[in-house]
Amino acid sequence: MIKVAVCGANGKMGKEVCQTVLDNPSTELVAKIDILGDDVFQTIEQAIKNTKIDVLVDFTQPKSIYENAKYCLNNGIKIVIGTTGLSDEQINELKDLSSKNGTGCLIAPNFSTGAVLMMMFAQKAAKYFDNAEIIEMHHNQKKDAPSGTAIKTALMMSEAKETFKTGNCPETETIKGARGGNSYSDIQIHSVRMPGFMASQEVLFGSNGQILKIRHDSTDRKCYMDGVMLAIEHVFAKNDFVYGLENLLK
User: CATH number for the 113-218 domain, one of 3.30.450.180, 2.60.40.1930, 3.30.360.10, 2.40.50.140?
Assistant: First the structure.
């Protein structure tokens, strides 16, 4: 039985994870961690003083995830990170801590198997197109932009070539930000925040006479739960560092 703690347990994603852990015969929910609630620990430190934790799943806020992850890796707690907003430098430091301490760490910008396949398909298509942009659309309560999924997608695509602006003319923005943010290999990322969306992403590829669109839409948080369980089982069995759920689907 895998003893699981959930940080951010009373958030929308946290509640889904808690229920999934409770429903799964191979996992036991041993601690809920959040700043509010009658049945929660308010800190990870409080939780580990009161119960044994094999794997901590973190769905908190961008401002807290980095310190949470460092604390876990320095105290022998394997961690699954679903919170986005980590910088490249922070991810690399967590990778080093995971390796140094021999403690498993999995960071997944998206746990939906459909979204991960969308990212993998985009990586494949990137070999055959010289121009590409990403549009990601989320609800208006999402604090970080662009999304971790969009950043990871661009990173995966960038492995194919140095630039995706081949043949573009020199550009002038008459309104700052109109062209979105310039990311890896000059891939423009456009972020939309609006009620009615949960999580959607479209990757656009273009060449003379054709447009390829690869799109994924999440409409219910339950779509993430199979990926969360896959991540929990992986870090429990392994002590490696993994960035991206696609590494478990290959």
Answer: 3.30.360.10
